[in-house]
Design goal:
The first copy, chain A, has 15 helices and 15 strands. Chain A is of the alpha/beta class and 431 residues long. The first copy, chain A, has a seven-stranded mixed β-sheet, with helices on both faces. A four-stranded antiparallel β-sheet of chain A has the order 11-12-15-14, covered by helices on one side. A two-stranded parallel sheet of chain A has the order 2-13. Chains A, B: Its cofactor is pyridoxal 5'-phosphate.
Chain lengths: 431, 431
Amino acid sequence: MTHQSVVLDSGQLHSSLSDPALTSMNLLNEVAGRYPEAIAFAAGRPTEQFFDVDDLHRDVARFREYLLRDKGYTPARADRELFQYGRTKGIVHELVARNLAVDERMHVDPESIVVTVGCQEAMFLVLRALRATADDVILAVSPTYVGVTGAARLVDMPVLPVREGPAGIDLDDLAAQVRAARAAGLRPRACYLVPEFANPSGVSLTLETRLRLLDLAEELDILLLEDNPYGLFHDGSGRPPTLKALDSRRRVVYLGSFAKTAVPGARVGYVVADQLVDNGSLFADELSKLKSMVTVNTSPIAQAVVAGRLLRFDGSLVEANRREAELYRTNLRLLLDGLEARFADRPDVTLNVPGGGFFVVVTVDFRCDDAALERSALKHGVLWTPMHHFYAGTGGFSQLRLSCSVVTPAQIETGLDRLAAFVREESAMLV
Amino acid sequence: MTHQSVVLDSGQLHSSLSDPALTSMNLLNEVAGRYPEAIAFAAGRPTEQFFDVDDLHRDVARFREYLLRDKGYTPARADRELFQYGRTKGIVHELVARNLAVDERMHVDPESIVVTVGCQEAMFLVLRALRATADDVILAVSPTYVGVTGAARLVDMPVLPVREGPAGIDLDDLAAQVRAARAAGLRPRACYLVPEFANPSGVSLTLETRLRLLDLAEELDILLLEDNPYGLFHDGSGRPPTLKALDSRRRVVYLGSFAKTAVPGARVGYVVADQLVDNGSLFADELSKLKSMVTVNTSPIAQAVVAGRLLRFDGSLVEANRREAELYRTNLRLLLDGLEARFADRPDVTLNVPGGGFFVVVTVDFRCDDAALERSALKHGVLWTPMHHFYAGTGGFSQLRLSCSVVTPAQIETGLDRLAAFVREESAMLV
């Protein structure tokens, strides 16, 4: 008998593995990996200019000092808190609640917070909890961050698109989609959106739209999943309160990230889930039960890195990100001005003008698919993200997303020259 | 109109949330939390005696030094590696592969390793990948670690029990269960087991049983999911190779944990998944796609803590755990001797005698359910784990698990006196 190595049948693996939502991320990373010299407007990563390994050591030490002094722990207990298995809902929930009060005037019970392995785990847990049967669906303002679509695929939950429109969410379409889904026997559970500088479109909701959305959520009896990774990075003109800060009816599940405001490498995020469940528990406690079977608990060492940062700036990420916010504002201005200057003679090339965040969307007259990206990288040395990935294959084929968060001003100028050349060439091919 | 807070219907949340596999963990933690003064033989946590925050700083610095010196990274690139979003499969895969070669004589391609948020995420990803339809099931040697049962619940995958028997796995029962499942239209995908010092039973498989199990896995066309958290903590009499080290046919998916051998608070584990998939990829790459939608990537800071520890001991966790292994050996001996001395007059009270690991199982003549645990904690000040939690409600009602990993020798003596008083009282109530 010869020993044969097993070969797994891809048709017998979970269907998400062949879904574009999961494969597109890999594909885009793979293209970027093949063109390391290209100027990358592609990744929505925070700036790397201020990374400092000494900060890491100081922040961990600061959190330990806080455990000793403010919490009255013995050194042995503080070390246990840092190194041992720990509370499933996390150990920095009080500091997270304080941050939300300081920066967002959002007052939440620390017990309603689950600290997660990045915002991605928070999304995954919420969707896993809400997907009880094959009839459960969520809605999402389209274009949608692919992380949500992917997490939904993992729990076999369809994502129904809601039109974005100029207001950031088309409320009539939301109502129509929910009603149509119910008429078809489906159970719409929640609507996901990024109300502030949406990824990828950069659109923000006005205060009035936020209030109307909260009323509509009650009327339709759905939850709202609010994701807010970029809220702090605005143009200085102020911004309305978050949906959660306006939420008097516990309709909003708030998804928090420290990846852009503290350290991506900590992989620490959180969810505020203060909804009551009819069994007497908080929704946060239900999510915690799920978390115990996905990651057990979030690394307390990683939590300490984020907590130390929060303590260093007295709970304020606005204060912690003064340099970063200034850099993003400058870069966004350079990107917008640079695009306008280069496409002044092309009224058919249009762009959105977000009040903050990392992203600008450019609409062109040719097909911006993955093959176009490959040509752009190979012939012009510039990378961007095809927008169709955010539409789950239903649109965005003539749009590209530019991110300005990890490029220098000089790279922006050179990168835009290259992009302009690419656009000229692609448009010329149409004739 | 008065504003009503939403109340979620627990019947409309995912079924796992009401499953004993998820609620029992909470219940046991909750009992332990209410009796902080009780002596706890309950938790399977590593010793806390050697936790040292200075080690954390030194280990991170050591890993950064390795990036600079051994990998030739610039300081900026090293900091990016530590702080930025990173490779989904992890950044310490080469060091993990080296550790497996050094300690386990297991030679694996670093590309077949996915670094995960603890071993729990590794289990979850493997089960998510293998559960494609409602017909897919896994098997698990019973009693089973609840983390597997819970992860399976999250993906709606039944877990069929396989008898453990004196060999650690009853191979005839495994074959019978797989055939019966197939006859019932089910699709058995894999069998989960802990071949070395199983949790909770402490049983180990002989070399011969391992070889026969590998042959049987091929014959039955299933995978083996090998979990090995305690392998290093043996009584010095040596141990057979892991299933993965013996696996020439890529039938074994190896689940790795650093929680007991490095730092639980890092929450770093891994999976070796070197199986080929018929689409040309490695199973590890499929798992990585799923991971990108659960946690994106494992905190590189947490990975650095583990990697620094590996570098400190030249890749060997055997070397890194000399003090810990000695402590566990001493404690296990004290526990076994103490039990024998206290129950010498009770031939009906029996126990297993594992060659290592953290756990001893005691069989008594009364019902050891959660109510008995509560009485034990309240009246006698001693905590243990009711074994029925590891049988998914199908057995173990007269067994309790004792863990000796986080107690001192003095606590073992006092705790066993209390346990003996509890057993006497419970047995007397039967008369």
